[in-house]
Amino acid sequence: MIRNKNIIITILMIAVLGIVLFCTSQKIYDLEKRACFETLEEHTEQLSREIGNDYLSDTKYLKYIAGILASYDRLDSREAVQILSSFSGQGMLSRMEILLPGDQLLTSDGRLVSVEGKLSFKEKAAQGQHMSERISDMLAPEQMILCNFVPVKRGTEVIAVLCGICDLDELPKVYSDSAFGENTQLYLVNGTTGNLLMDTWHKDLRHVSDFKKRRTKKGYSMDTMFSDMEKGKSGRVVFFSEKAHTYFYSHYEPVGVANWVVMLSVPEKVVFAKTDQIMKITYFLAIFLMIGITLYFIWLLRELKKEKCAKESQLTRVQYMFDVEKILFDAHMKPGQIEKALERFARALTAERVCLLTIQGHTILQNYFYDRQKGTDAKISPSRRIPEPFSGMFADLAQNKSILLYDMDELGQTYPESQKIVRRVGIRNLMMFPLIDHENGMTGILGACNMEHRWKDTSQMECVSLSFAMAIRNMQVYQGIREMGLMDSLTGLQNRNSYHAAVAEISKNKYQSVGCVYVDANGLHEINNHLGHEAGDQMLCFVARTLEDTFGADNAYRIGGDEFVVLCRNVGEADMQKGIDGISKAMSDHQYASSVGCFWQEQPIEIDTVIKAAEKNMQKAKKQYYQGEGRDRRSREMNVQLEQMITEKQDADVFLSIIAPEFKGVYFVNLSTDTVRHIFIPDYFEAMMKKSGGKFSEAIRLYARELVKPEFSSLFQPVCDYRELESQLYGRDVPGFVYQKKDGSWMKLRIFKFKKYAGQNKETLWVFENTSS
């Protein structure tokens, strides 16, 4: 019966495997098709943006040239011809020409060619700026071109039309795509007329209607594609090419100008090339998988019994881990929980004794022991170092090594120094495991000895090590938080909470005498306002250190912003007064002022009376200080410091005004974040920074495109690549170059490593200065 069931299960698994393989293959093909379309869409959108940006950039450039030409008296002058002849191509444009009244065309070589009947000056002038349909070249009719017409105006009168010529034979050299290597086909279509403006697959430029003859896969339609192109919408299509005898997967995207549409296509065999290889490997693996299924059943029966035993053992261990973790959950607030956890720990290991040591460096902070016969015990020894005989064990544990020994003779071979001590205390076997904290350092040690069960490894101890380590961490954090609630974070003195606790403690105990020293730091508000809060903090810290050194850290408290209190228990009045005199002298030596009030009382002591009297005396001293010349003297000292700061600022402004004419821009640039701080910045570059969203490299590229002569703009590319620039900064020479702007002026750029150039703060200094050549 069992055998028949296994046969049926095997057959079912083989059938399921076949279905899975079929579904998997379909899924892989679908995923590959989706990935193909996503890649085509991404690259098509990129090309669309590139062509659109070039069109806008070309138009902007032509308008700029048109503005220059408008200033000339004669548009057929030598200067105008020089502008046309010096043009070396930009974006889609390959050359420029000027259409003059009378239907005369001024070429880049200075010729006047009649285009009457072909181009109408009045018609083009009336249309304003626009892009032409695909037309024949006026100078070479066998070539197809596009013409970007921009009127040249003088006032409101159109005196000429500037023609930006785009040679369609040259477009494939300007725009290309490698989404799928050399197999990618690129088309540029005029969605309104259907004329192809670029075709990298065919030699001649045809009409998009030629695609109507091609059949498509189910779910795609050529009519939909033509409709989308006319409406300027994006889409996908899969059509069959008789020439290539294969399907082509295509995506088209509107350019956004002149109703142009970009389309990328790739052959089906290229799309699924990787998928076919994957499926061959998949079928090959399926054969081995079926063989493995048969062997699996043989192995399964043998493992069922082992698995049952392992699950029972695992369940017991999980319960044990859960019990320990539950007990230790609030051990930081209830230290007695540690003892309960050790008892559960000892039971699980069948150990006679267990221990938990908390460690800091080579010092034992706290010892927890559990003995099955004697119960629990905890001893705190904050300065006890690891005993020398156990230093070898400690070194191994610190390297995250566990110790498991059942043969004490082996202990003598591995750790000879500790063998005698271990034997003397009656240890027959031993297990130890290090507790590691979040910084990968040892924070404690778990130990057990005289275990009744013979364990193969330390996993029974390891599975609860994290719980004990977290308990130690929680206790340390809890203690730290408690200390933070009792200490002032700025000065390190005890805070107001500690002060109230000390007052309550004094009221409950009988001291021979109690004195209170009440100190107020004078002038803190003025220092903060005039010299900054950092100077005020320095003053408060100085007062705190003075009180701590004079009366001790246990007796000094910061109870407010500028108020400090010292509580002197069993200190003579003369000694207290001597300390107060020392404080006043130290404050005066450092040009600080304070108001000090004190009161001292012997038994019977009323602590509230002592404190209020001291505070009252402090208020009197403070009133006398502000009524006297102390305040005026302090104000004069701060005024001197302010005058010095103002003078230094004025000196710096004079220096900057002298050197400013030599520079066009001085910037501190952080290469890690591409952010900038400027010393000098022209208005035009500030506008570029805003346009680039605060990215310095983008602003520099924009600067090179718009203001630098084209033959020099390529010099900026290496310095905008910060990886390449970093390699230059580590060389012997300072990176930089000389270039010419479009206005004819010559500039020099130099880049220096700044003193803060390190790590994530790679700050550099960029200096743009005038030069003669």
UniProtKB/TrEMBL annotation:
InterPro entries: Diguanylate_Cyclase (IPR050469), GAF-like_dom_sf (IPR029016), GGDEF_dom (IPR000160), Nucleotide_cyclase (IPR029787), Rev_trsase/Diguanyl_cyclase (IPR043128). The keyword Transmembrane applies. The keyword Transmembrane helix applies. CDD domains: GGDEF (cd01949). Residues 512-639 form the GGDEF domain. Coiled coil: none annotated. Gene3D superfamilies: 3.30.450.40, 3.30.70.270, PAS domain. Keywords: Membrane, Transmembrane, Transmembrane helix. NCBIfam families: GGDEF. This is Sensor domain-containing diguanylate cyclase.
